[in-house]
């Protein structure tokens, strides 16, 4: 039996650590700037008065979803916020396409792919409950 050698093990590092909060904020800021000017989706966001507040709320959501913690925990109500928006499969597809484009612009391909995978899973769940 070998001694003194650490057994090989998978070191788990959550995505939040690999991406970092600054890049989460950058991605969200760029993504919502895109959403607000997108011909298909901008109308959903026109009514938001405090957009900076909205972006920081969304960035906090993703920070937690990616494994991070917040100094001041916040409540999220994903289903409640999306119910009644009359979302369509085409709107979801557009949202995901734009999110994927933003991710690949700001992150290395592997990190972008992992984050997008999470967004796709959340979107699929949202669609099941809101369409
Ligand atoms: C058709 C696609 C989508 C549209 C048009 C849309 C639009 C919106 C709107 C209008 C709000 C409410 C803003 C407010 O009143 O403060 C919101 C909230 C939010 N959205 Fe979406 N959304 C879409 C898909 C998604 C997806 C796929 C995700 C995540 C993967 C997401 C994440 C969030 C989060 C985290 C919030 C805040 C929830 C909370 O306040 O607790 N959205 N979205």
Automatic annotation (TrEMBL):
Xref: Gene3D superfamilies: Globins
Residues given in the record as heme binding sites: 57, 82
GO molecular function, one term: heme binding
UniProt keywords, alphabetically: Heme, Iron, Metal-binding, Transport
Keyword S-adenosyl-L-methionine: no
Pfam families registered for this protein in UniProt: Bac_globin
Listed transmembrane segments: none
InterPro entries: Globin-like_sf, Globin/Proto, Hemoglobin_trunc
Annotated protein name in UniProt: Globin
